[in-house]
Amino acid sequence: MALNVIMMGPPGAGKGTQAERFANERGLPKISTGDILREAIRERNPTALAAQARMDRGELVDDETIIAIVKERLLRADAQNGFVLDGFPRTVAQARALDELMGRLESGPLIVVDVAVPEHELVRRLANRKICEGCGTNAVPTDAAACGQCGGQLVQRADDDHGVVLERLRIYQQSTRPVLEYYKQRPTFRVVNGAQPPERVALDLNAMIDDAAAARR
Ligand code: AMP
User: Which residues, listed in sequence order, are joined to residue 55 by a DSSP beta bridge?
Assistant: First the structure.
């Protein structure tokens, strides 16, 4: 059965890093709506360019645009054995659209993992986060001089500025917390302690996802 995973969690929880790692280990595509949008901006895609101002302010891009991106991506061949979603769904409308799509595809149930981290720790982490100007690699170590993937220059993400960080956390509480409520009652919902060292988070996360996959049968 397909392993369909959603990595939830506030900005700065480390969900992108964990999603990447888990996806690589299991040979699944990691599908990050933030990465797809940033890449589309680099390619000067008009829809993505129209969304850029909202992204830079830390606001959400409209549901219609995001749902269209995810639908198109989940229908591709490489997502048929499962996927790891990072940064989607961020609103209840997106979560409903995903359920509707999964129902139509008759794909396995969604395994939802919330990477939980206290807010003061998130603010500290986000203020130190950088991104590569060249290839867009996220969450590279902040003391590095250049990107480990392509050697490109590391810059602060436009949306990691202090004021924007607080705005992103506020929007998370307002729009994305309700998504956790939406999933919470499902037997395949799990919470991992994201304040632990990344290695420990990865171990817990693997065990929880396997447990949830076994429970759904
Ligand atoms: P991320 O890299 O996941 O933090 O995403 C960066 C920005 O892209 C967000 O702050 C939003 O402006 C936009 N974005 C990414 N995913 C979504 C989504 N599922 N819904 C709405 N906006 C999104």
Answer: none
